[in-house]
Amino acid sequence: MNEPQETRRGRAWSIAPDVAEQIGPEQLRRMNDPEWDSLLMCSFCGEEVPSDVPAAAIVLEISGSSVAAALWAHETCHPSQILRLTSDEARVRFPALHEPGGSDVEVAGSVAVIDDEGTELLHPMLTISYTTEVRDRGHAESTDLVTTALLRQGWNLITTLEEGFADGPRGWSVYATPRPGGLTEVCLMGPSGPETAATIELPELWFTAAAERGHVGVLQGPRLGWEAGTGALERAIRDGRLTGGVVPVVVTG
Ligand SMILES: [Zn+2]
Fold first, then answer.
1. Of 5, 52, 61, 251, whose CA is between 20 and 30 Å from 184?
2. How far is the CA of 74 from the centre of ligand 1 (A)?
3. In the chain, where are the structural domains located?
4. 219 by DSSP, 3-state: which?
């Protein structure tokens, strides 16, 4: 006699049909994985959404931007829907979006040792981890909308961490501005202005490497969790969702 299978309930979600269509079945399924039980921050009140309280999924489309973002909220703070805003409106309504520790993107700097034809060289790195994953309808399983948009911008699909990275898209650069108190403002600048900005701690060696190389290796992917080593990077590579490239770095201030 068959015992009924005990199925994991996963996180409680509140997702409107048009949002579900944007996110896509593969991503919806993934959102019931155990990793989603923990730490989901509400983009509206800034508090954590416990896994037994329905979390509303909101798709944020910024006019003029190629990247759609998924935001999470307490259902009581904001219902699940597709929001179409200008970047100014988004900045006012979601001031945390581009802050360090904000719910949307996290930035970290590190220094990598890369073998350059027998010589080990220090390379400054910038890792941009996004917590948003919006599934492209009808697209390959292994690609989400953010990755799709980054590839369209000209970033490379990263398939190994063992080799140096190819050049990033033309017209992109990183600005690093040390501030009093030891933190540094970093900004990933695209052809039409700042794309990602954060105030972070950078090791002294990062500046040494940046001065020597004149460029920085940028890695972008979902939930990279760099504190735990390269495991998350390897997973993003396996999923075909790690993009990056080498762009000029300018240290100011
Ligand atoms: Zn809330």
1. 61
2. 4
3. 13-95, 105-251
4. strand
DSSP annotation of 246 reads E
Are the C-beta atoms of residues 71 and 93 closer than 8 Å to each other? no
Instruction: Report the DSSP beta bridge partners of residue 250.
Output: 175
Radius of gyration of the chain (CA): 19
Ligand 1 midpoint to CA 86 (Å): 22
The model's confidence at residue 183, banded by pLDDT at 50, 70 and 90, is very high
- The residue count of the chain comes to 253
Q: How many angstroms does the Cα of residue 55 sit away from the middle of ligand 1?
A: 9
Determine the pLDDT at residue 4: 46
- Residue 180 makes CB contacts below 8 A (sequence gap 6+) with none
What's the pLDDT tens digit per position in 212-221? 999 999 999 8
Residue 242, token pair as written in the block: 């790690």
Rounded to the nearest whole angstrom, what is the distance from the C-alpha of residue 34 to the centroid of ligand 1?
A: 21
- Annotate 103-122 with three-state secondary structure: CCEEEEEEEEEEEECCEEEE
Rounded Cα distance between 108 and 199, Å, is 9
DSSP 8-state class, residue 54:
P
